[in-house]
Amino acid sequence: MHFENAERIRRTLIDRLERLQHAGVMQLPRGKAAVAAMPIDPEAPAVAADRPFADVAAVESTTIGQSGTGPAATRASRSNESTWTTAGTGGLFDSDRADAASDAMGKIPTLEILQQTVAGCTRCGELAAARTQTVFGVGDPAARLCFLGEAPGADEDRLGEPFVGRAGQLLTKIIEACRMKREDVYILNMIKCRPPGNRNPLPTELDNCRGYLERQFDLIKPEFICCLGAVAAQNLLNTTMSIGKLRGKIHQYRGAKVVCTYHPAFLLRSPSFKKETWEDMKLLMREMGVELG
Ligand code: SF4
After folding, report:
1. In sequence order, which residues have a C-beta less than 8 Å from that of residue 36 and are 6 or more positions away?
2. Given ligand 1 and candidates 136, 156, 193, 204, which is best to mutate, with the most ligand atoms within 8 Å of its CB?
3. Distances (CA, A) of 162 to 68, 95, 136, 158
4. Is 150 close to ligand 1, i.e. is its CB under 6 Å away?
5. Interval 101-140: pLDDT, tens
6. Which of 118, 126, 128, 122 has the alpha carbon at shortest distance from 188?
7. Beta-carbon contacts of residue 264 (< 8 Å; ≥ 6 apart)
8. How far is it, in rounded angstroms, from Cα 281 to Cα 43?
């Protein structure tokens, strides 16, 4: 009898460890409090078996992504955080969340390797010679929504992040008006180097950089893309239609739904067009299942 109980406890522990491993957790929480909280009694209610370590998750502590610093660690940590804190609403390790967490963690190194490749790229001689640095992209590598602009400007070239100048601040306000945070989405440009004098990218430059953009989308796999301005919209969708005609509709790009709207820099010059952009955002949010009213 004693042996049977020990065997059942052993099997329960193995089952739970396998589920954790499947969810991408490579290190268990530390400390007596965490261990004490583990529901190892095989007679425990079924709900506990369905949500292994739910109470441990609430306790703490040392998991992948919560050590180290930098964007990768932050993103992985946030990924875990949302998994941990949803224990009460639908199962800590239900397969969708576990897959999303490990998927996000798996994407980071590959995006980072691509970013390093881009940083050394000299395909466009004029841009490579003039740039301070390449501007790859920023945000959640598992984002449902990507915002796509045309090219870095002076502030972006200096800081290495897209949409950080006045236009970027307006984009941040637009994102927040859509009840999201800037970190919830991914922001990138058609090309990764600043064109001199902020001129539009040349067709050859767009062609040169296209492979990087497509690889980014392949890795992030966004469900939705919002093109900001005519250059991004026309080049992504391979059309010459004006932004006025492209906006207000849902387009398709390799399985993602695409909404086009005015570039925030244009909105700063022509604020009366903000109303149209807000209509485009409402369309986009409706498609994403978010009602803005
Ligand atoms: S714009 Fe793109 S393709 Fe051209 S040099 Fe920069 S990274 Fe390379």
Report:
1. none
2. 193
3. 24, 34, 8, 10
4. no
5. 445 556 667 999 999 999 999 999 999 999 999 999 999 9
6. 118
7. 163, 167, 168, 170, 171, 174, 228
8. 51
Which bin fits 196, alpha (ψ -120 to 50), beta or left (φ > 0)?
beta
Ligand 1 atom with minimal separation from the 208 CA: 3
Cα dihedral 274, 280, 236, 189, rounded to 10, equals 50
CA 108 / ligand 1 centre spacing (Å): 21
Domains in the chain, CATH or no CATH each: 2-105 (no CATH), 120-288 (3.40.470.10)
What distance in angstroms lies between residue 262's CA and the mean position of ligand 1's atoms?
24
Predicted TM-score of the model (pTM): 0.67
- The whole-angstrom separation of Cα 209 and Cα 212 is 6
Euclidean distance between the first and the last CA atom of the chain, given in angstroms as a whole number: 62
Distances (CA, A) of 27 to 36, 77, 222, 234: 17, 14, 29, 47
pLDDT tens across 74-93, in order?
333 333 333 222 233 333 33
